[in-house]
Amino acid sequence: MVLLALLALFCATGIRTLEEKGKENERRALTPEDPEYRREFFCDDMRRETELLSRECRNLLENVEKEAVYFPIPLSSADRSLQISYTDSWMKERSYKGVSGHEGTDLMASCNERGVYPVLSICDGVVTNLGWLEKGGYRIGITSDSGTYYYYAHLDSYGNLKEGERVRAGELLGYMGDSGYGPEGTTGKFDVHLHLGIYLYRDGTEISLNPYYLLRHLEKHKLIYSYF
């Protein structure tokens, strides 16, 4: 009986070891296009186990960790009731002109009034897109030095910026609004919020990454502005 128990224990241990090895091999085979990597991007487990990632996935994660400095919405020193909230809405259904998956995180305003909340750049970079998109409304795109693209959408207005200009982390990009879902100038189709997206462009392909876990990390790095 003792020998049988020991044999069963060794078999169970061996099976667990093989399962763990299999999971490690699966992670090392992941690419940035992989849905699991995109969904779990920057989560605690991924950051703790970077050695299990492929070189490409590890480099992307480390680049974002180095360049992402500030939470995109500052605290208000004038009115502490001005808060924001957000959930992990990655790939939740959206239905404007057809069904699509939500490629970002929506930061919702406790004060549903456009033009109140400043929107700051998460990182240093260059303004590579600025202007109207039918879905995104007034948006601004910042490309970091690593080539990662940070997308800020549904703005009410812009800061004093032009395409091609360099911005610093924490610099004002504009103000949160409710623009989009129609021709230029359309507002009021949804509540005031900031849609944040993170993208990688490789060989002409756009790869979206879930911003939720990065935002959770940046909660500890909020600037304070005076606005009300």
Question: What is this structure, in a nutshell?
Answer:
Helices cover 25% and strands 29% of the residues. It has helices at residues 2-28, 35-39, 44-48, 55-67, 212-218; strands at 75-76, 84-85, 93-94, 100-101, 105-109, 118-120, 125-133, 137-143, 149-158, 166-167, 172-176, 193-202, 205-209, 224-225.
Task: Explain the overall architecture.
By secondary structure, this protein is α+β, with helices and mostly antiparallel strands. 25% of the residues lie in helices and 29% in strands. It is built from 5 helices and 14 strands. Strands 2, 5, 6, 7, 8, 9, 10, 11, 12 and 13 form a 10-stranded antiparallel β-sheet that branches. The chain has a two-stranded parallel sheet with strand order 1-14. A hairpin with a 3-residue loop joins strand 7 (125-133) and strand 8. It is globular, with a radius of gyration of 21 Å. The mean pLDDT is 92.
Descriptive labels:
single chain, 228 residues, alpha+beta, ten-stranded antiparallel sheet, two-stranded parallel sheet, 5 helices, 14 strands, globular
State the order of secondary-structure elements, H for helix, E for strand.
HHHHEEEEEEEEEEEEEHE
Can you give the helix content as a percent range? 25-40%
Poorly predicted ranges (pLDDT <50, ≥5 residues)? none
- Main sheet attributes: strand count, strand direction, barrel closure: 10 strands, antiparallel
Structural class: alpha+beta
Q: Give the percentage of residues in beta strands.
A: 25-35%
Q: Quick check: average pLDDT? A: 92
